[in-house]
Amino acid sequence: MSDTKRRILALVSVAGLVVAGCGSTAATPTPAAATPTPAAATPTPVASTPTPAAGGLAVTFIPKQVNNPYFDAAKTGADKAATELGGTVTQVGPSTAAADAQIPFIQDATTQKVSAIAISADDPDAIVPALTAAKAAGIKIVGYDSSPAKGAYDVFVNQVDFSGVGVLLADWACEEAPNCTGDVAILSAAATATNQNAWIALMTSTMASGAKYANLKLVATVYGNDDPQESTTQAQGLLTKYPDLKVIVAPTTVGILAAAQVVKQTTGSTVKVTGLGFPNDMKPFVADGTAPVFGLWSVPDLGYLTYQIAAMLVKGTITGAPGETFTLPSLNGGKPYTIGADSVVILGPAFRFDKTNVNDFNF
Ligand code: RAM
Fold first, then answer.
1. Which of 62, 64, 294 should be mutated for ligand 1, with most atoms under 8 A from CB?
2. How many domains does the chain have?
3. What is the Å distance from ligand 1's center to 242 Cα?
4. Which residue range is the domain that position 189 belongs to?
5. Helices marked H in the chain — which ranges?
6. Among 84, 132, 168, 178, which lies 20 to 30 A Cα-Cα from 106?
7. What would you measure as the largest C-alpha separation in the chain, in angstroms?
8. Which of 279, 295, 311 is the last residue before a domain boundary?
9. What confidence tens digit (pLDDT) does each residue in 114-132 have?
10. 260 and 318 in one domain?
11. Band of residue 21 on the pLDDT scale cut at 50, 70, 90
């Protein structure tokens, strides 16, 4: 398909979305924008949707929500891969992590006939019909970060083995609670998030299984929806409702920052915070003892690996079948990755950050 035809398709489909989703006069597309004539290819805000060269690689990244810095960090890695491969990346998505909010973005990418969609699921099931339609249109589907339901993707790129994260969260809670004893609460992202729910399930089963954790009591799990304000309110609620709380575990970069800020601002609070966070967000809280230990992985590498896998699926170098292997010189120490059960590829182990190393990291 020619460049111009692709631009026109993009214009028509985005214009259609605007009409369907918005009644304001200002947003109504002018007939010129919707008319498929050469004039429509004139750059307009809509035409700024990246379009690949004819036959080129166009990957649309649909994060849980666009206003979460985590996904911008992942996109820097996707951008790097796209530059190496001569493809394009578009990142579009909802502004809240609601279960069905990603559906119109999947449908729009399908209409645009992109090569691949990379998606971090707000809800594993709500997006299945839209992903199935995209697959039927020949678009490759790569889940990353938070998995769509099995069968709805070609490959899911997991940042780290789920059970590994679950054990680490339990261990860090144990490390932060005095004598590994007392009340622990979880501040999560969205209640439907596949990744957080898997980590929480494995954290709680770890806590239930080992004598080491026998004196830790999980008193609550609350959801801040990866919204800074909602996460702040939820963290404040935990401090009020559980006066004996020892640790808040927040397996979300948004939640852990909000929880640390709330604890710090609460005079006299001895609650500790752990979970998954960006070193740059958490450095002050490691320094003042609010969050002595937490973890994460290289988020740009997650985006890079996701894009590379999308490209290999599009080219047909891999199909996503368990047992297939591939090598990317800059990841995994240059050693091959193997596609595992349920077509899952694991980026690598999580990092642990504490006062001995957090200042060595800059992301
Ligand atoms: C938030 C999101 C994301 C998760 C990280 C740790 O940014 O919920 O999905 O992987 O935290």
1. 64
2. 2
3. 25
4. 162-295
5. 3-21, 31-34, 69-85, 103-111, 128-136, 162-176, 194-209, 228-241, 253-265, 279-287, 299-315
6. 84
7. 71
8. 295
9. 999 999 999 999 999 999 9
10. no
11. very low
